[in-house]
Amino acid sequence: MFDREQAWRDAMRHHAVGMDELKKSLLAEYRCRKGGCLLLRVWNSPNGPEFYAPAARVSDRFATAGQLDWPAFNRHSPERTGDRAGRLDDPVIATQWLWLVCDHLKEAVWTSELRADIKGRRPGDPTRVRLPRGHADTT
Question: Most exposed of 67, 101, 104, 111 (fewest Cβ within 10 Å)?
């Protein structure tokens, strides 16, 4: 049985090793076009592709749109998402989307799109995506 909270802890622990170490396994990094804010990192782990999206401010109205508190087990207020982390093969989100959120952007990205972005990528040679997507943004 898939343990979402354990997957969150594993992904948070793997992300906490620091960028020098994480760069070796990084598959994709997503940032907002306007401010360059980090939206999401995806890396290869022994458990498969894991992700981390940093906490972000959201309005109560937007928070009720769903999923912003999942899988954020450290959400401390209704105005923030909490750090969102886990595995791309999580059965709940595998056919759904993740909200990528910062002060400048609130965009739902399908997990199938994330998987397509990392397909064929070698760990340590990540694709870099600016959102919203535009011409010549992905490397």
Answer: 104
Compute, in degrees rounded to 10, the torsion defined by CA atoms 39, 133, 49, 37: -20
Q: How many domains does the chain have?
A: 1
In the chain, the largest separation of any two C-alpha atoms, in whole Å, equals 41
Whether pTM > 0.90 for this model: the answer is no
Provide the token pair at 8.
């969150």
Q: Over the stretch 61-83, which tens digit does the pLDDT of each residue have?
A: 555 444 444 545 566 666 777 78
Question: CB–CB of 132/107 below 8 Å?
Answer: yes
Who contacts 7 (Cβ-Cβ below 8 Å, separation ≥6)? 47, 50, 71, 85, 86, 87, 90
Domain housing 127: 4-131
Judge whether 16 lies within some domain.
yes
Alpha-carbon span 8 to 13, nearest angstrom: 9
Does 138 reside within a domain?
no
Q: Is residue 137 part of a domain?
A: no
